[in-house]
Amino acid sequence: MPHQPSETASDAGSASVLAITGVEKTFLTSRGERLKALETTNLELKVNEFVCVVGPSGCGKSTLLRMTAGLESCETGSISFMGTPVVRPRREIGMVFQEYSLLPWRSVLDNVAMGPEFAGGSRADCVRAAEEFLQLVGLSEFAQSYPHELSGGMRQRVAIARALANRPELLLMDEPFGALDAHTRILLQRELLKICQKHATTILFVTHSVDEAVYLADRIVVMSPRPGRIKRILSVDLPHPRSRGDARYAALSQHILELLES
Amino acid sequence: MKSSVLSFFLPALVPAAVVGAWIYWAPVIDNELLLPSPSSVAAILVHPAEPLLAMGSVAVNMLMSFARVAVGFTVGTILGIVAGLVMGRFKLADRILGPFLELFRPIPSLAWVPLLLAWFGMASVAGLLGIDSGPVYPYLDNLKLSMLFILILGGFFPTFTGTYQGVRSVPRTLVESSRVLGASESDIFFKVLLPGSAPGIFNGIRIGITLDWCHLVAAEMLPGASSGMGYLIFDAQMLGRMDIVIAGMILIGATGALLDYGCRVFERKKLGWSREVR
Ligand SMILES: Nc1ncnc2c1ncn2[C@@H]1O[C@H](COP(=O)(O)OP(=O)(O)OP(=O)(O)O)[C@@H](O)[C@H]1O
Ligand SMILES: [Mg+2]
């Protein structure tokens, strides 16, 4: 197994929320061939940590996230959340998809209320929770709108509110801002960080954008091309709010880009 | 303004021309067996409750036909939705039942008639329920099992196909994001797949109900039928009453069109979201 630099000193105080140990994934393609999507992967997330995963297209980032969410089985290795293995989706682990995940026939409010509703909450409780989180993402006035009446950025905010309304302890995000324009993207990144501070959540965030990773993450996982493997894990020791003009910001971005290309 | 008035009357243009031609030609041909006069047909239509010879009134026959379609189509539709949901969701069920259903689809419903008459004969819902008198008896006795079978079959396939394709068209992320939010298997079924395939289901229902209405009239012309619009037309032909035949045809056509229109309105009101998505 390739050597993985452990650049984060494991501070004994904070317990690990998520432990990915020796996980691999091989898909059986429709032509009957075996396709290795993910090489042996180890990763641990501490409470309140914000970890970004960057890597070239097809290196298994989504696969890793989907396995963590319990949407995809893992034959080798194990993924455990708070000490118990993840075998199916569970309420404590939320996920925000890249796009098209809101139910088009439900109003914004009813979309955000889905988690509490599935948990068997009363209608009043569900509505209250949904309203609270809609307010958090600044979309209270669109509660009665339908997803198709919103812009892409607004839809992703709804998706984030929906995930948060379930009060997850771990939030998985698969390129949630991938389809947005640069401006909206930066806006939502800022909002996400604010939300994270308010609602202490641990986040595993997949992105194509090195800049996004450096802006958001406490640690950045850099992956190699397919079959995906963790190439390096880097700590980002810049204080928030980060300035994109900062020399260290630029140097780190440059360093990661080089890692991705090598 | 002017053009909107015009476009309002546009759909009425051709029917009006047809009626006009009819009014013109009827006295020229002057043969009630070929082309009855519009006035005699209109007389039947404006007095639907008046008994016609031995056939009962138009209204009663209409009601009978309606009851048959209502029962048969409802049962067929429910079966179609359930089968479509299950087979659309579970590959295994699809593999087991798919080929079997495909064998039955191409068989025209009327091809079933000999077999159905042999199996069910004149048996009706009344017999099935063990009712042989009382106020509802005549109605139940007119719900012949053989006819219902045809109507159930006719309602089943379009709804099944619509539902099946509807389920298949529900994006995978909708199901997955719901599961991540804690949806149980029944939540997935009733809160994601069912509403998600509603446009497909509804499309099936719309096609199916008009189709079933056609099946019905054909089924009512079979031996043993003693009421309904199909029977009315068939019997009127025997008696040489073309005016009744045409009145019946107009009513059948209008009812079918009305059912279709009702479905469209419902679709626009309740399923508007589906046209906005992608
Ligand atoms: N269900 C599946 N069946 C077969 N192969 C799959 C399946 N899902 C993913 N793969 C393959 O696994 C590999 C990794 O896919 P994955 O979606 O995890 O990549 P990714 O890193 O998220 O890429 P991107 O950045 O483009 O989203 C790809 O080669 C893909 O073709
Ligand atoms: Mg991906």
Overall geometry of chain A comes to globular
CATH C-level class of chain B is Mainly Alpha
Q: If you compute it from the alpha carbons, what radius of gyration of chain A comes out, rounded to the nearest whole angstrom?
A: 18 Å
CATH class of the domain at 6-92 and 168-261 in chain A: Alpha Beta
Provide the CATH superfamily of the domain at 6-92 and 168-261 in chain A: P-loop containing nucleotide triphosphate hydrolases
* Gross CATH architecture of the domain at 6-92 and 168-261 in chain A: 3-Layer(aba) Sandwich
- Classify the helix fraction of chain A into a percent range: 25-40%
Question: How many domains of chain B, as an integer?
Answer: 1
CATH T-level fold name of chain B? MetI-like fold
* CATH fold-level label of the domain at 6-92 and 168-261 in chain A: Rossmann fold
Helix content of chain B: over 70%
Q: Give the second-level CATH assignment, the architecture of chain B.
A: Orthogonal Bundle
Q: List bound small molecules.
A: adenosine-5'-triphosphate, magnesium ion
Largest interface: A-B, 28 and 22 residues
Number of E-type strands of chain B: 0
Uncertain runs of chain B with pLDDT below 50, 5 residues or more?
none
Features:
heterodimer; A: 262 residues; alpha/beta; Rossmann fold; six-stranded mixed β-sheet; four-stranded antiparallel β-sheet; 8 helices; 33% helix; disordered N terminus; B: 278 residues; mainly alpha; MetI-like fold; 75% helix; binds adenosine-5'-triphosphate; binds magnesium ion
Please provide a written account of the structure.
The complex is a heterodimer of chains A (262) and B (278). Chain A is 33% helix and 26% strand. Chain A has 262 residues and is an alpha/beta fold. The model of chain A is unreliable at 1-13 (pLDDT under 50). With 278 residues, chain B is an all-alpha fold. Chain B has one domain (37-277): MetI-like (MetI-like fold). The radius of gyration of chain B is 23 Å and the shape is globular. The chains are: A alpha/beta (262), B mainly alpha (278). The structure holds adenosine-5'-triphosphate and magnesium ion (MG).
